[in-house]
């Protein structure tokens, strides 16, 4: 977390609306692993390495995982490349405009993923695998989205936030379905208080109704949003720009697979940019909230013991070491 971020730490955040796919979970990496395994099986069973299944497995493996992702080591059509990217990362990053504005369109993200997978298999590279994967198999593959893996820093950070005093509400705000959000949270054992999905709120981000309605359902009206009581946390700057327009405090996290091509250009408002705070790891979010809350509650009570001159030196050292391991900075100059 930059000095700018630390100095602009919010003082009154009571709830955080969190983008799910790409922000809390590694959607690209998870789908790459799952699709690679599935395509490799199809290639081994009957399609062969040079088939559509083999090409899909190779191209997915070549995409890699995270910042080091590379292009496939062969000529791949732009259509095939675009559709592969859309299948591997569409929940937050690619939603048809008709869904955003509330007009007709695929209202179930599972259906949308199935449509995109079908489109992918229509490309020249993957025609053979289209024969290997039946309609039922394709539906099964689209359920992979319900088993996406969280980023390594997600669960520890959410668990730490749940222990803050005063408490901070945690809710997802996503274009996925309610069932999808629940399944992913349960798969990763994430501590989340509520889920607000596109099908639940009958809209899609970046429609203003998504941010406003989710905040209202948690008990925060427009005045509360303007007062900074609700934050939006995401790895997609467009999501945060839309949230800011509705008064939410905005926290941007740089994820290696998200906002490709523009991630490094995102700046804080203090730097003339688009968001309030930028972080690189969710542990920084925990620190930000601790700063904003004044480190009240149990942590403060522990610090009072730290400042007790009668505390035995070894016990005091153990207490300080324990706090440091939790990412809490000692506050020895503070009076009771």
TrEMBL record:
Alphabetical keyword list: Hydrolase
Residue ranges of the region described as Disordered: 298-336
SUPFAM superfamilies, per database record: HAD-like (SSF56784)
Comp. bias (Basic and acidic residues): 307-320
Superkingdom field: Eukaryota
Pfam families reported in the protein's UniProt record: Hydrolase (PF00702)
GO MF terms held by the record: hydrolase activity
InterPro entries (alphabetical): HAD-like_sf (IPR036412), HAD_sf (IPR023214), S-2-haloacid_dehalogenase (IPR051540)
Name of protein: Haloacid dehalogenase
Species whose genome carries this gene: Rhodotorula mucilaginosa
């Amino acid at each position: 977390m930059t000095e700018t971020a630390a100095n602009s730490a919010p003082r009154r955040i009571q709830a955080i609306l969190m983008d799910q796919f790409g922000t809390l979970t590694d959607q690209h990496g998870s789908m790459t692993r799952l699709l690679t395994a599935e395509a490799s099986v199809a290639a081994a069973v009957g399609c062969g390495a040079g088939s559509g299944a083999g090409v899909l497995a190779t191209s997915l493996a070549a995409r890699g995982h995270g910042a080091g992702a590379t292009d496939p080591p062969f000529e791949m059509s732009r259509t095939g490349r675009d559709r592969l990217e859309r299948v591997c990362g569409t929940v937050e990053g690619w939603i048809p405009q008709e869904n955003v504005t509330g007009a007709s369109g695929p209202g179930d993200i599972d259906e949308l993923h199935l449509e995109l997978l079908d489109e992918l298999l229509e490309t020249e590279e993957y025609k053979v695998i289209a024969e290997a994967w039946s309609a039922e198999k394709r539906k099964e593959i689209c359920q992979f989205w319900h088993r996406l893996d969280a980023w390594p820093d997600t669960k520890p950070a959410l668990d730490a936030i749940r222990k803050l005093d005063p408490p901070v509400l945690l809710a997802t705000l996503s274009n996925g379905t309610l069932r999808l959000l629940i399944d992913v949270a349960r798969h990763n054992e994430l501590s989340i208080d509520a889920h607000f999905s596109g099908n639940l709120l009958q809209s899609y981000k970046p429609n203003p109704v998504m941010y406003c309605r989710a905040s209202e359902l948690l008990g925060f009206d427009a005045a509360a949003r303007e007062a900074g009581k609700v934050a939006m946390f995401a790895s997609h700057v467009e999501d945060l720009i839309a949230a800011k327009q509705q008064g939410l405090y905005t926290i941007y996290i740089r994820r290696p697979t998200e906002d490709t091509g523009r991630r490094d250009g995102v700046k804080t408002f203090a730097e003339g940019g688009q968001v309030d705070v930028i972080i690189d790891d969710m542990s920084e979010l925990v620190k930000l909230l601790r700063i904003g809350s004044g480190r009240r509650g149990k942590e403060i009570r522990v610090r009072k013991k730290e400042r007790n001159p009668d505390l035995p030196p070894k016990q005091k050292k153990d207490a300080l070491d324990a706090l440091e391991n939790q990412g809490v900075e000692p506050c020895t100059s503070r009076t009771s």
